[in-house]
Amino acid sequence: MTSLHDKPFILSQDTFLASQIFNLDQIPVKITIQLHKLPDQTSNEYFVSLSHFIQTPSRKPAPPVNQLNQTLVSESDNDKAFTTIRKSFLAAYEKAKEEHLMPDNSWLIPNSEFVAFNKKKVQ
Questions:
Q1: How many domains does the structure of the chain reveal?
Q2: Which of 36, 62, 86, 104 has fewest C-beta within 10 Å?
């Protein structure tokens, strides 16, 4: 198992809040979302670590991420932050289906920098 302290992209200690797993209809790959906050942060900004990015044939390249390989979301609570991320996945997925593309596992690109707490690295 890779230690979080061995990961070069972690520049500051943040606080893990929660995780959620979901999948897209017709794609059985489990996608993990993890929410983090900086310990001294009182704003509504969450850092969101994703186990996978979505890249449909009509959406290239995959969405960019910052140097921490995380996305920043501003929401009022954990549930709304999770909903925002799921909606971004669903928007790309639904757009591809509207273009009559058949859903495929290859649409999900594993995040090679993702470390699931108490689990092994995503393959």
A1: 1
A2: 104
